What we know:
globular, mainly alpha
Amino acid sequence: MGFSIVRWSLAFVISFLAVYDDHKRFKISNRLILLGLIISFLCNLVSIFRLGFGSAADYFLAEFCVFLCLLFLYLIHCVRAGDVKLLTVIAAFLGCRISALVVLVSMLAGVVIGVVELSLGRAPRCESINIGGNTIDMHGYHYSYGVLTALCVTLILNLLGYF
């Protein structure tokens, strides 16, 4: 239980820093992502020494699966590169089961936050993309807000015993 609190705390710290960075610069620093990956790797090493390789395998698998799934979404312009990297780092801290919920809840929260930002006129136009010969204006929003919201919701569900 104690080590789980450390993992959750580190995931929240990385997420808070990512939200701050995303809000200020509209991108998430690669240095922050690298720091998160290094710290999560060290956490996994501690897990290996404490509980054996099987305990850390879940975290490595979560990192890999989340990266592959979100890479697909990145390739079709649904998320940005920083969002993929941020959720990959979160998955490395929280493991398969919890990361799957974080990704799903972050998508839902991202939609709600994006709609609110658009309706308030706060989502700036980022780029135009061409899909099937049609040009679509893309509007940017801070998906990191959705990730942090998902972490909060998932932590509450976890504390209530649902996960």
